[in-house]
Amino acid sequence: MLEIRKGRIQDTEPFVDLMALVRQSMEHKEWLYLDPPEEVRRRMNDGTMSLWVAMDGKRMAGAFDILRPSLAPFNYGYTIGLSNEDLQKVVHMDTVVVHPYYRGLGLQKRLMQTAETELSKTGQHILMCTVHPENRYSLNNVLSQGYTICTTVDMYGSIRHVLRKDIG
């Protein structure tokens, strides 16, 4: 049975390894942009990144991270013209990876919903994410959770829909 829980610092390396495994196994690698491992480690250590993990015993079946970009230039809110006040409410619903063995169990949605439930308890947030337009599984997944496409832009060396959902 899979347990979904908040990630810990010691989950950082298994998360980095799972991201690499998932991307390596993908036919369309441009669909998944990965931050460099050293950036993931830094953000986990400084608290700008939070992680949720799906564990099968000691094996990481899936993981999902969020980022709190504040006014950093990479904040997706800039692409849709948010005010400085709203930019500070943006949370990037960032990277979801599921081990190939565990696909088809709804882990992407379950991980995102677990994070969203926790975020909704902490105040008003503007949840934003990006999805490659041809990645129909991920796109349908986030659309089914109430996200709307705001714009489509060149990002991460490819094209991405920028999506938004307000909570809190």
Question: How would you describe this structure to a colleague?
Answer:
The chain has a single domain, classed as Aminopeptidase (3-Layer(aba) Sandwich). It contains 5 helices and 7 strands. The chain has helices at 12-25, 37-46, 84-87, 107-120, 136-144; strands at residues 3-6, 49-56, 59-67, 90-98, 125-131, 148-155, 158-167. Strands 1-2-3-4-5-7-6 form a 7-stranded mixed beta sheet, with helices on both faces. A hairpin with a 2-residue loop joins strand 2 and strand 3. It is globular, with a radius of gyration of 15 Å.
Summarize the structure.
The protein is of the alpha+beta class and 168 residues long. It has a 7-stranded mixed sheet, with helices on both faces.
Q: Averaged pLDDT, please?
A: 96
The percent range for strand residues is: 25-35%
How many structural domains can be distinguished in the coordinates?
1
Largest sheet: 7 strands, mixed
Overall shape: it is globular
Instruction: Give me the count of strands.
Output: 7
Structural class: alpha+beta
What would you give as the CATH superfamily? Answer: Gcn5-related N-acetyltransferase (GNAT)
Can you tell me the residue ranges where pLDDT is under 50 for at least 5 consecutive residues?
none
Report the CATH C-level class.
Alpha Beta
Strand order of the largest sheet: 1-2-3-4-5-7-6
Named CATH architecture: 3-Layer(aba) Sandwich
Number of helices: 5
Radius of gyration: 15 Å
Series of secondary-structure elements, N-terminal to C-terminal: EHHEEHEHEHEE
CATH fold title? Aminopeptidase
